[in-house]
Every structure is written in structure tokens, then in C-alpha cells.
Amino acid sequence: MNYFKGRHFQQDIIIVAVGYYFRFSLSYRDIVELLRDRGVSVQHTTVMRWVHHYGPIFKALWRQHQTSHTKSWRIDETYINVKGHWTYLYRAIDSNGLTLDFELRKHRDYAAAYHFLKRLLTTNGRPDRLVTDQYRATLKAVKHLMKQDYLSKSAHQCSKYRNNLIEQDHRFIKRHRVRSASFQSIRTASATLSGIEVIHALRKKTRRELCLIGFSAVDELKAMVPA
């Protein structure tokens, strides 16, 4: 599938724009200025539309390219402000800190936790250890999944200390803010965070593998796009 067919700008220009935006704490106007210095004239609203369109696409491509991970997982959620209201970004990483999955939800409740955990277990199989906090809605979802045989009782652990790994991992996502404006809808927030999470996941993987040439968000996104 050609994800860039019919676009006014070339594929490389779009990938550079969204790659810089997802990787660094830049505004849309910052991206416009960077592109102008390279001889490309584009409006900030166009960059915004690219971010909202390609964030979910890169998330889907990243899921297709995921490699093996450890069977010890950490699950937690963090707060994201969307138009003055708190929403909740559910996240999962393994014991090496590599991202397994993520999902933005309107509420922090049983339904949100159950939906996220069920998809995580369905996609990645049964872990040897699943560490969560002691939030009642999450514990209820875990117990329900145990009854459905998605998870063994011995695998689940509640430990604030063991969950420090994912608490620290939230920092990159929380620190990445658009300076010009906050998120205006759950749809655009989810799309933008999808791209940010994918770049964060790819960067952690590159650092884990001790890549000698360093990390490039643009090169990683290009590598994911089908030829």
C-alpha cells in the first residue's frame, strides 16, 4: 500500500516533518521553519494534518515490525490533558524497558483496563510475570482475565517498587508537549501520541542494541514504510 499516494509533497518531506515532530518537543511552526531553511515551503496546518494522519499509520506499521521481548511485563497508565480534561494513556513495557503496547482512553476504569490488557495478552501471549499497581479497576480486569484463562494467577504481581521502570518511562511522553497548543480532541491526541510512542519505542530499541550509527527518527520511519 502506498501511504503517500496523491499527496502534494514528496514522501521524504512528509517523513522528515513528522519524524522531527514526533522525536523532539517542537511546535508545528518550528517544523515549518526547519523545512523553510531546506527550501521547502509548507503551512503549519499542513504539518498538523500530516501528524494526525500518519501517527496511527506508523503505529500500525510498528506493530507489524515488533520483535521478540521478555516475558516480564509492567503495566501502568499516565495522565494526558485533552482540552482541559484528563484522559489516560495506558502503557505496557517489558523488563528491558521496550514498549509492548499503548492506548489512550477517556476514562480510567475497569472497561479501559480490561480492553487494553486483553488486547495486550491476545497479541503477545501469556507473560511469566505481569506487574501492575493496586488500582481497583486494574485488579478487577486482571482477575476477570484470569478467569478467562488469558493469564495465570501466579504471574500477576502488585508492586509499586517493581513498577518504577514504567513510571520512569512515562517521563519522555509527559515531557513531549506541543508548545503552541494543547490537545483539542481525543482523536487528535491519540493520533499524535501514537507517533510519539512509536519513535520512543524505536529509540529505546536502538539504544538497547547499541547501534553504532546512532538513532535517526527519519531513517527508522523510512525503514518501516513498504517499498
Radius of gyration using CA atoms only: 18 Å
| Largest sheet: number of strands, sense, barrel closure | 5 strands, mixed
Instruction: Give the class-level CATH name of the largest domain.
Output: Alpha Beta
The percentage helix is: 40-55%
Could you state the CATH homologous superfamily of the largest domain? Ribonuclease H-like superfamily/Ribonuclease H
- SSE succession: HHHEEEHEHEHHH
Alpha plus pi helix count: 8
How does CATH name the architecture of the largest domain?
2-Layer Sandwich
Protein name: IS6 family transposase
Keywords: DNA recombination, DNA-binding, Plasmid, Transposition
GO molecular function: DNA binding
InterPro entries: DDE_dom, IS_Transposase, RNaseH-like_sf, Transpos_IS6
Outline the structure in words.
This protein has 8 helices and 5 strands; from the N terminus they run αααβββαβαβααα. By secondary structure, the protein is α/β, with parallel strands linked by helices. It has 2 domains: 107 residues, no CATH class; 111 residues, 2-Layer Sandwich (Nucleotidyltransferase, domain 5), CATH 3.30.420. It has a 5-stranded mixed beta sheet with strand order 3-2-1-4-5, with helices on both faces. A hairpin with a 4-residue loop joins strand 2 and strand 3. It is globular. The mean pLDDT is 90. GO terms for molecular function: DNA binding.
Topology:
Blueprint: H1 11-23, H2 28-36, H3 44-65, E1 72-82, E2 85-94, E3 99-105, H4 110-124, E4 129-132, H5 136-147, E5 156-158, H6 164-175, H7 186-208, H8 217-224
